[in-house]
Each structure stands twice: as C-alpha cells, then as structure tokens.
Design goal:
Blueprint lengths: L3 H8 L3 H8 L7 H14 L5 H8 L4 E6 L5 H16 L3 E6 L4 H11 L7 E5 L5 H9 L4 E4 L7 E4 L2 H14 L5 E6 L9 H15 L9 E4 L3 H12 L8 E4 L2 H13 L9 E6 L4 H4 L2 E4 L2 H17 L11 E4 L3 E3 L11
Parallel strand pairs: 1-2, 1-3, 3-4, 4-5, 5-11, 6-7, 6-8, 8-9, 9-10
Antiparallel strand pairs: 10-12
Helix pairs in contact: 1-2, 1-3, 2-3, 5-13, 8-9, 10-11
C-alpha cells in the first residue's frame, strides 16, 4: 500500500508538506499542493483514517441520527445529507432510532460519545437538554432538521405557514367547503408538524371568514393507504362533502386522489386536492403541492455542519440556538381547479 513517504518522494516535497496539503492546511503553496494531490492520485494513495485521527484529533466522520429509514421523507433527507458528506470527503455513521427510547439512550449515552464522530446531524429529533449537554462537553457541533432545537442550530420549514399557503390556494380558487386530512396522533413527530399544518389550515379559513366543519376534518398516517381510507370516509356522503381537501403530506394526497376516483369523482372538476412535500410522484399524480425541497434540506444541513467543523474558529464548534427557515414554493398542477358552482 502506498504511504505518505512514497507520495512525498514522487512529488519532491517533505512528508510534512504532504501531510499539510492532504489535510487542507493553509500554509502550503498552491504549486506544492497541486503536486502533492497529483502524486497522490497517480500513486493511488488512500489516507489512513486512524493516522489522520491520531494527527488531528478528528475522525472525518459525521454521525447522522434519524427516527426511521424506511419512509420517503426521512430516506430522502438522508440521501441528500449522505451525498453532501461523502462529497466533502467525510465518512458517515448512521444511527436509527427505530428501536425506541432504549436505542436512543444507548446512541447518545454511548455510541456518539465514543468520539467516533466529529459532529452530529439529526433529522426530525428534538434533543433533550441532557443530550445537548453531552455533545457540548465534547465540543461536537450539532445541526438538526425539522424544527427549532433549544441550544442548537437547526433548519426547518414554516409548517404553519405551509398549511396556510396550501389552504389559501384552495380558497383563491373559490372553494368554501374545504376539508383537511392531517397526521394522526400516533404519527405526531417531535416537532408537531401535523398540528402546525392544521393550525395553518384553521388560520386560512379564519382569514377568509369561512366556517370550520369538524366532519371535514380527518386523521391518517402519512401513507397512501392512510390518505385513501380517510378521504373515502370524508367523501362518502356527497350531500355533505367538501369540494376541496388539503392533505398534510403528499402521500396522504395520493391516497385521497385515488379514493375520489374510486368513488366516481373527477379530480379536479368535482374535488380539488393539495398536499405538502414535493414528493417525486407528485408530478405523476398531477398533484398541486407545497414543495419543501426535502433532499436539499439534507445537503444544506450537512454542508453547514462541515463548514463549522472546518472553519478553524473554535466558536463554530459550540452549539447555540439558531433556526434557519427553509424556503417553500407552491407548485400548481392539475389536481386543483377553480370551483364554478360554489
């Protein structure tokens, strides 16, 4: 295996220069850095992770903690984060909390604290005070995705605003009978996204002086199947059914569209449907949706975390509360249309 000595001899520089060049240190001339990188590539040099850790005290490894891996939202954010981390030359250690609280305690009490990771990225997790304290003591910066984390940086969409935007879109098309399929209590996430999106729905109705009708409100899991069964119940009595439905997630909306069609309703002539997410299948279904660019959230969070690690400023390794609101866009497709007989 090619080592640092062979690279130095090939490039005609000292081993110290090779070390500084490969580790991205500033005190190396551009010409020397170019020669070192070219030699390393030609010789097939692969840096030893253990040697790097001994020399720098860093592992070049990011820990990513996610509640689930087998759901579209989480796997998509994870894909964006992992791609960004690997592109920056770091390894990834993935921790899944699907094993419950015991698994979560073990991750934060033992695994993350073994100094195998330089920083931690969490997805849809509101860390406790004790979890944050442990990370802070080891100067491990953290960034979260999904909502505000007291004492840590985070990225999140305005879920309440997203619910308001989706509902306002239906109102702008002349709909006055607007239902909503929200997330069920068992799917309430740690940042309460279903509740916040429902609050936005209520606010939009209130702003338009429209009444809220409990019979036009349903709960479902964030799945196509959940949306299908909830919408079928809501639309099953045509004489008392809404003309439009706001769904708290795109997969719920896909199920609602299918339920409407199975009941003989036309989308959007008889029923308009709008969702939130920007799911890749939204275009196939013709779904109008509030796009939150899920994969980009993952890559942005990962890049921000690594920027903090590599800044050279000690203060960037410290955790402090800072919420970045992620932009959203309303994408209008064929699942929503103007109501002509309201």
């Amino acid at each position: 295996m090619v080592g640092i000595i062979e690279v130095a001899q090939h490039a005609g520089v000292s081993t110290a220069t090779v070390s500084r060049a490969l580790n991205g240190k500033a005190n190396v001339s551009a010409r020397a850095r170019e020669r070192v990188l070219k030699s390393a590539q030609e010789l097939g040099y692969v840096a030893s992770s253990s040697a790097y850790t001994l020399a720098t005290g860093k592992a070049k490894n990011i820990g990513v903690v996610v509640p689930f891996i087998d759901r579209w939202f989480f796997s998509t954010i994870l894909e964006g984060a992992v791609n960004a981390i690997v592109n920056r030359g770091y390894d990834v250690t993935l921790y899944s909390l699907s094993g419950g609280n015991e698994n979560r305690n073990r991750i934060f009490d033992e695994l993350v604290l073994r100094k195998r990771v330089d920083g931690v990225l969490t997805i849809a997790l509101r860390l406790s005070e004790s979890e944050l304290k442990k990370l802070a003591e080891l100067e491990k910066p953290i960034i979260g995705i999904g909502g505000p984390i007291p004492g840590a940086r985070s990225i999140s969409i305005d879920d309440e605003g997203a619910g308001r935007l989706a509902t306002a879109h239906l109102i702008s098309l002349g709909h006055t009978k607007i239902g909503m399929i929200s997330g069920s209590p068992v799917t309430q996430m740690e940042f309460h996204q279903p509740y916040l999106r429902m609050t936005g729905y209520h606010e939009a109705l209130l702003d338009a002086n429209l009444d809220f009708h409990p019979q036009w409100m349903a709960e479902a899991t964030f799945t196509i199947d959940g949306g299908y069964h909830a919408a079928k119940q809501m639309l099953g009595k045509p004489q008392n059914a809404p003309t439009a439905i706001f769904c708290a997630g795109d997969e719920i909306a896909f199920g609602a569209i299918q339920a409407a069609r199975d009941l003989g309703l036309r989308v959007p002539q008889d029923i308009s449907v709008v969702g939130i997410d920007g799911h890749p299948l939204a275009e196939f279904y013709g779904l109008s949706t509030v796009d939150q660019k899920v994969m980009n959230q993952g890559s942005k969070a990962a890049d921000t975390l690594i920027d903090n690690l590599e800044s050279g400023d000690k203060k960037d390794l410290k955790n402090f509360e800072q919420l970045t609101i992620w932009p959203i866009d309303l994408v209008v497709r064929s699942s929503t249309a103007r109501r002509t007989d309201s």
